[in-house]
Amino acid sequence: MSNGTTSESGRILAVTSGKGGVGKTFVSANLAAALAARGERVLVLDADLGLANLDVVLNLFPKVTLHDVLTGRIACSGLVEYSRLTPQVRDQLSEIILQLVPRFDRILLDTGAGISDVVLHAVSLADEVLVVVTPEPTSMTDAYATIKVLATLQKRRHVRLVVNQVSAAGEGRTIRNQLQLVVDRFVAPQLKAEGDSVPLVLELLGEIPIDPAVREAVGKRALLLVTMPGAPAATALTAAAARLAG
Amino acid sequence: MPPPTDSTKSDSQALNLDAALQLLEQSGHPLPRLRDTGKAAWLQAVIDGLCELSSRDPLTGLANRRHFELMLAGEVDRVARAGEPALVLMIDIDHFKKVNDAHGHPAGDEVLKHVAHTLSDCIRPMDTVARFGGEEFAMILPNCPPSFAHAVAERIRIRIQSMTIPIAAGETVRVTVSLGGAFAPQWVRSSPLLWVERADQQLYRAKAEGRDRACLEQPAVSFVSPEEKGLLFGTSQFQDLLS
After folding, report:
1. Which residues of B carry out catalysis?
2. Closest-CA residue of chain A to B195
3. Low-confidence ranges of chain A (pLDDT < 50)
4. Got the DSSP string for B125-166?
């Protein structure tokens, strides 16, 4: 499977998590806002066919879901009825994303909880992957499982991490190191046995502190970066966007 | 549900439910009480009866393929959210055509009924067993860890193998089954279609390898072993998160 669609202009970043409820959509939306504030033309594409809720977070933000595209509310060539991943949907996804790529500097694919066949396919079209994780053991376990799937099924060798809801500075780094340790110990030998010696590297893109402003923004269905750009979580997201933009 | 108004009452009385009631009666389904005719509760009972009827296989009484697919779609969602392992088994009677050819179709029907009965006897209350079509059966086993799966499949195979099926006075047959199984990858939402396809591939493998056996797909790579969890949370600063 190829790592990303060769693209002239837009870079595609898949945002995924493993466990639901870790703030993946919150991170996608606000990271996009931070990138837009840097002058990038950003599209957030809701790749969660089942439980799409980006619109709830974004409220008035222009939004395109794959559902829109697939059902024809957004003009793209060829329309299909979808129900999860049919071979038709599989083929159409690549085509749709290819069509959207030239219109933007960056496309964020906000995926569903867990990794569906659709999401795995969508992620395979992305140039880069971002895994959102929280310090909770279940979230870390699921993030690790996700990284393992992406490494083995998609030959990913570079996975970015955003650690959400950290309670102390540096916790994100600790979690990244811990995940890297288990990857080196358990995933790397497996990849090596399959004849692939390129190491799998986890890069910490940012850590976002627990911040009451987040709850407030989500409750208002507003973007944190717009309503409270000075909040600690917003500052952290802006820093993550800067790092992502390089 | 709001109480039926006069208009809904007259509407429901205007409905022609003869065919529906006839179907229910013929299938041995208890009919709604006549004195409630036309009331919302009565209509609901007719609809419930029809739903029940349309989700069962008439010969074996098992869930039919339609109901199986509905349950499977639900399981796909549940697995993706909860990250629990789940198994789909496809079960096919070996050389079923020979039973039909040698003993006639009524004998074949008896075999199907007995196999169905034994399959329902092998499962837990939360499992679903269905007649998928012809002599093929399908099972959904939620929360079935890969380490148990082979034992589960073998138990079914041996139960069927050791069963003597009376097909006529003083006449019995024995049959075997081949089983194919596929796990829903934990945290990986599949489509019901792809999941059954994968189990079917294992069933073909069991047939090709000589029948009367169970073949299971390798569990998915997303499985996180206790050793991996141990290392992930092994350092002291994570001990408190685990307790």
Report:
1. 135
2. A117
3. 1-8, 50-84
4. TT-EEEEEETTEEEEEEET--HHHHHHHHHHHHHHHHT--EE
Contact A129, A14 (CB under 8 A): yes
Q: How many CB atoms lie within 10 A of CB B8?
A: 15
B182-239 confidence digits (pLDDT tens) = 988 665 666 787 788 889 989 999 999 999 999 998 766 677 888 999 999 885 445 4
* All structural domains of chain A: 11-245 (3.40.50.300)
Alpha carbon of B47 to those of A62, B40, B52: distances in Å? Answer: 43, 10, 9
DSSP state letter for A105:
S
Residues 6+ apart with CB under 8 A from A228: A213, A216, A217, A234
Distance CA B127, CA B88 (A): 10
Residues of chain B with CATH 3.30.70.270: 65-217
pTM above 0.90, yes or no: no
How much is the mean pLDDT over chain B? 86
Are A117 and B194 within 8 A, CB to CB? yes
Nearest to B237 among A152, A174, A186 (CB): A174
Determine the Cα–Cα distance for residues A228 and B54; give it in Å rounded to an integer: 55
Is B83 in contact with A114 (Cβ distance < 8 A)? yes
Tell me whether residue A15 is exposed, middle or buried, using C-beta atoms within 10 angstroms of its C-beta: 0 to 12, 13 to 18, 19 or more. buried
Question: Considering CB atoms only, which of B190, B221, B229 is closest to A152?
Answer: B221
Fold of B65-217: Alpha-Beta Plaits (3.30.70)
Residue among A191, A115, A184, A108 nearest B81 (CA): A115
Cα–Cα distances (Å) from B1 to B13, B21, B32, B44, in that order, read 18, 23, 18, 11
Q: Please give the distance of CA B218 from its chain centroid, rounded to a whole number.
A: 22
Q: Hey, are the CB atoms on A116 and B77 less than 8 Å from each other? A: no
Phi/psi for B226 (5° steps) reads -55, -35
Residue type present at position A199 = P
